[in-house]
Design a protein that fits this description.
About 35% of the residues lie in helices and about 15% in strands. It is α/β, with parallel strands linked by helices. Helix 1 (about 10-15) runs antiparallel to helix 2 (about 60-70) and helix 11 packs across helix 13. The longest helix has 21 residues, at about 255-275. It binds pyridoxal-5'-phosphate.
Amino acid sequence: MSPSDSQTTGFGTRAIHAGQNPDPITGAVIPPVSLSTTFKQSAAGVHTGYEYSRSGNPTRENFETAVAALEGGKYGVAFASGSSVTATIINTLHSGGHLISVNDVYGGTYRYFTKVAVHNGVDATFVNLSNAANIKDKFKPNTKLVWLESPTNPTLRIIDIRAVAEYAHQNGAILVVDNTFMSPYFQNPLALGADIVVHSVTKYINGHSDVVMGVAVTNDKALYEKLTFMQNSMGAVPSAFDSFLARRGLMTLEIRMQRHEQNAKAIAEFLQKNEHVEEVIYPGLPSHPEHELAKRQQRGFGGMISFRVKGTLDNVNKMLGNLQHITLAESLGGVESLVEVPAVMTHAAVSAEDRAALGITDTLVRFSVGIENVEDLVQDLQQALDKAY
Ligand SMILES: *Cc1c(COP(=O)(O)O)cnc(C)c1O
């Protein structure tokens, strides 16, 4: 099945079949993992399309084809991590280039922009994009790229992707959207005007918290050629085995995302009614400030919730210490439920001043709702909150 079938087949069908052709020799329905680093040529320079596994690998290509089909894109390019996707894309900018990023961008992306890209002569401006028009006066003659995430992390603000894409294009810049939180199941940024969509495959796409990997998808042939050139030149490629695991994870993406969302909705409603909870942030709640925008640009609201409990970090720690099924850990998007406290964990490197401005208080808890039985999750939260006060 080719990615062009993405117009005619359903998401779950593409997730299972795109790029996944039975082995032509044995008929194996799941193609074998292609571990070979090199490929036999029939005459010097005459080959099957594969020469050396850094420049092209059948297992990796299977994964790339599948993700492209799910994002409604023509081309997928896989990397060793989400962070190496960022590094590779920014390395396509020349020294003297300028980029604009949403202010509450993923911490590792912020670190790359401010501590690495600048040494290569690429300058970044951060802007609050809750109102897309805020970007208007941030463009410079050398602005090449705009980078955003929606929903943002951890405050789950929704950004109008179509509006930002228009401003970027009017100013001769491309738009890159990090779609990790939504997964291709709930949102397709290319259809909203983005030029490149990126994922930390480590999260929902692989979905089982056992692979670190990344991917970029585009419809633009010139961008694709730049990315594959950089993929081969910088060499941050995923292993064949990780590509196989991520391809396998992808097969259940549709049903996992449905369950993540179903559980998240029930938990958001439970938390809203809990006496110890001050605020629940979930784009699926009508009380969310961008609920209408989320309904418009997403096909669902996903599995991430943030909530603010009453009291202090001490209450938060007591609650976390009493959880039985929900694990205190960084990361997200796996089948298991994970909670974390951004102020002291994922966002500890953000200055106290910036954290305050972004609403990342000590009592804000980020919850990656897993696909366990929701009654167990609700009961776990209930008893842990009761013990915390
Ligand atoms: C985790 C994450 C990344 C980085 O991906 P890695 O696979 O950890 O390198 C980038 N963006 C978002 C939104 C993430 O959650």
